[in-house]
Each structure stands twice: as structure tokens, then as C-alpha cells.
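**Folding the chain**
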Amino acid sequence: MATALQLANSGLRVTLLEKQHYVGGRTSALRDQGFTFDRGPTFFLYPRILEEIFASLGRDLYQEIPMQRLDPQYRLAFATGGKIDATPDVARLKEQVAQISPRDAQQVDSFLRDNRTKLKHFAPILENEFSCWRQLFTPKMLSLLPLVKVHRSLEQDLRSYFHDPRVRLSFSFQSKYLGMSPFQCPSLFSILSFLEYEYGVFHPTGGCSRVSERMAEIAREMGVDIRLGEEVQKLRFSGRKVTGAITCKGEYACDALVINADFARAMLRLVPESLRPRWNNRKLGRCKYSCSTYMLYLGVKGSVDLPHHVIYFSSEYEQNLKDITDHYRLSRDPSFYLQNACMTDPSLAPPGCSTLYCLVPVPHLHPNLDWQREGARLRQVAFEQMARLGLYDLESRVIVEHQVTPDDWAAMEIHRGATFSMAHTLDQMLFLRPQNRYQDLDGVYLVGGSTHPGSGLPVIYSSARITCRALTGDLGASWREESQLAKV
């Protein structure tokens, strides 16, 4: 959607083909009996990228999409004891950390200061095209290696600041936004928790799905032709160039094609292997993929006395992560995330009711797990886990319930049900990730979590801007010159 807005603003004629009958993909709404749930992302972070995109359209993000900065940002509850109500007020944050570890509270300022420097230097890399290994060896990049500490995982990096493992978890669980374990995630991504404290965690009124919906409304006002319920079934090729997309309702010729679908699934389904030597079936099979998620969307009677966001950390957190990423099995005491959005936004439920969104990280599709059987078992575990937060009578209060398993994510065209796409390991980042200007085909561009810079809403919006910059340059597009419109 961000791509369509920017390309239309550059004077291109844009058609957007969407399989579903609603916009937004994973950042869409599930509505039932007056309850509204975000299907996927619920944390709206680092609004600067989208704010700048809206400004380029002559619009104000916060006027178009009212949103509230949360304080506390979230509650972190530890099965081993203690909790932290994470606040962007640094003095209060240090008080919260001191309740668990006075020694670690003294290191909060150092962590924030060092990551402020890290983000300042790496933001240009994450906001620009990175298409060649030679870019790694520029004097600028080499000078940044001491900051990035490529030999360390995120967990190892945080050990240099924090002694208590619960405090380290507080500043590393954000690796789950990438579908990764902090014990495997590169240390660069310490900037994720810094972003939350520096720039805030927001709730858009109506949910994150409202961001997608408002973008679609603006896109239509700008002339974008949004075709819902039209799955791309086939691509038309002339040699290495894609010349059209075919749906159940017809064929759309194009001068350029932008693919926002899950990369691996789109390649396997739409592009003959002979046309993708760099990303052939063998390579796609060897790639590392993120975890998946088990979801419960619950519309319940009454209010819920919990903050907007709550993350529960298992007593065996590291083992829980190994179960997910290494052993492909379900844990007895899984960590989970709970959103209680009506605490901030009562419009999401009928009067006297609340919406709850429960997410349990689980392995992506694997022969070890049969989700026809495991779904019902994990549902019971999820209710037992939520009882640990004091929701003892929750099941009896449920009015509306929807469950999503990795099988369901896979049915939504997500390869292996890996909700966060390809893993963000060092060998799948920067130029080693599928490129924004797709190398195997001519006139094809990628956006979304599968391409550079990676997953997470702010990063995905950044990918859209990188891709639009490349595409408009290749087509020689100029601003609002209708006589020179190309078809995208």
C-alpha cells in the first residue's frame, strides 16, 4: 500500500491486485459481531518512516490516522518472579528495572546512549538499497563494524550491559518481531528496543489495520486502481521480463511489477525455476525461515484489568525458544503475548465487552507437528497461560473466538507458515536477502518483509520507499506528468 501511494504520487498509473476481499494482508482487521481484531501487527513503532511518506503526499500522518502513544508501553511478566511496566520515561524505567536488579538499572542510560549512536549510523543502511557485496567493504561500512559486533548475538551483546537475565529479556524480546530468538539474532537488532523507548509504542485508533485501510482510501483518491478478490494466478513473461499479471478476471499488462507477496511462495508458485537461477528451488529449500504463531482472537464479556500489551516470559524461556527453532515441538510452559486493546480503544468492542489477542510463538510447519491435533491442545494451554496473568474465568466469558495455526498462515500464501518470512540471520541480510530490485527478472521489484531491510512495519515501509526510488528511477518517472504515465 505504501508502494502504491508513492508510485501514484510519482505520476505512475498503478493497479493493485489483492487476493483477499480486504486490504492490508497481515496488517488487516478481523471483524465479528462488533469486535475488531488486528490479524497481525499490534505494535505501531517508529512512525518516522510512514510520517515522511505521508508528508511526501502533502498529508499529515497523525491527522489521517489518529494514534495514541502508550505509557506504559507494555508489561513484562516473568514466570520466575517480578514484572516491569516498561515506560518511555527513562527515570521511571530505571525505577522499574531496579525493582528486579538495582545494579542493572544503572546501565539503562548506557544502553540507550550506545544504541542511539548505533541507530544514527545504521539507519542510512537500512533505508537505502543494498544490492552488492562490495558495499560491505566501503570505508564507511568498515568503520561501523565495531558498533555492530558481528561475532555476538543479541543476548551476548546485552550481557555487556545487564546482569539479570530478566532484564536482558526486557531489552531483547523484540527479536520476536523478526520471528527470531535473541540467542541467535544478530546484535545489530538491539536497536529495536531502543526505538521503542526513543520514539514510542503507539496504538492507532481502530487498530493497526486502520493504517492499511486509510492508506487504501488515500490511494483510491490518488487514482490507484485497487482490485480486491483478484489473486494473481500466473505471470506473463517475455524472456526475463514480466509483461503482465493474470487473475481470474483478466490480464493486466505492466511496464513494471512489484511483488508484495511472501517471496518464497510467490517464486515457487508464479515464476518458473529456469527464470530464477539465484533463487532456485534448492536455494529456497535451504533458506532459514522464521517461527510461526498460534493465534487466539477472543471477544469477551466485561473489562480486563491488564495493560494494553503484556508479554509473559516462560520459566524456561531459552528452552522454549530451542523447542521452536531447533526441535520443532511445543513447550509445556510457552511464552506468549496478550493484547488488551480496549484498555486504550473501547471502539474495538461492543459496550461492556473487550477484545483479547493472544499470540504464542510456535515452530513453522514441520512434520513433527500436526496442527489438526495440536490446535485444540494448544488452545487449552493458551487459556492456562492467560490464567497466570489473573484471567481465571476467561473461557466462560468468551462470546467470539477465532483460532489461527501455522496451517492457516500457510493457506494465506505464507511459505511454511513462517509468519515473519525469512529469518534475519547474518547470511540472509543486506545483499544476501532477496533484493528490492529483483535480480533474476527484469522490471520486477520486491517489497515487504522478505526483502531488504526485513520484517516489522517500520522496516517494511522503508522497503517500500527503497523500491519506489529504484523503480521510478528505472522508468524515468517524473512527478504528476500524466502524458508520461507508465503502467505498474
